[in-house]
Amino acid sequence: MRKLQVRVWFARMEIWIVLLSFSSGVLTEEIYRQCLEQVDIASQTRVKRFYRREDSWRSLTGMLLPRAFLREQGIPLESVTFSRTEAGKPFLDVPGIKQTVGYNISHDNQMVAMASHIGSEQDTNKVGIDVMKCALPKGETVGTFLRAIEDTLTKGEMNIFTPELDSATAIRYIFLLWTLKEAYTKALGLGLGFDFKRIEYNIAQSSVSIDGRPAQGWQFLLFVVQEQGSADVYQGVVARWVGGEGTHMEVLSSVEKDSRFRMKGLPDLITGTW
Q1: Backbone angles phi, psi at 53, to 5 degrees
Q2: Each residue's pLDDT tens digit, 60-85
Q3: pLDDT category, 115, cuts 50, 70, 90?
Q4: In what order do the strands lie in the sheet with 233-241?
Q5: CB contact set of 77 (below 8 Å; sequence gap of 6+)
Q6: Are the C-beta atoms of 68 and 271 separated by less than 8 Å?
């Protein structure tokens, strides 16, 4: 039997990011076929159900990320069970080690991201990531978009959008609030079943409260990624249960020199070469 050589990080996570370039011509049908071959038949079927090829690429990349992560750890895929908690949150069950591999996937526009770490089942199941391109939908203004999402924001959060606030800052705040709330609920495994108004992020004080009380034991990692050669900026947040007292807030101005972040290309996610 093959002995697993697993590198274990007890209180550490990694964030892997892939930027897909839909308009570059790089994502050919041949590459698409090779990527599909990396996943099981059931996963291939789910990917092929999408009408738009861009949606297929995002879904497929999200499937490849945890598989590439396992491969880098020296864990053969055939020994792994892709499992879910009672709430439907995915995690990886790896025989031969006492820990589980927790991960969460998010994608928006051309970005696909994964937060992952190895630890106890309780810890690994409580990690969530959300990323969004900082751009309003076509035809929307800050005012109309705020009215559309105001049911998800607290009174305190709405109060920061004063007439004096410039449009660029307002847009950044909108996506910062949204991604933090999404990441937290995804870490819980509840998603849209959790009332976003129960979560309040005080941007000025850099604090998070749940139901009016500090988010004790939670870590929030806020980061921004700018697409190379483009003006597109993505806001991201990772929420993770770490235990202990207080809320652990970390705001990164750049991910380039942070060892937790790994910028990946599609060739990094598949076996063999193109």
Answers
A1: -65, -35
A2: 999 999 989 888 877 777 777 777 77
A3: very high
A4: 127-133, 233-241, 218-226, 248-251
A5: 67, 70, 71
A6: no
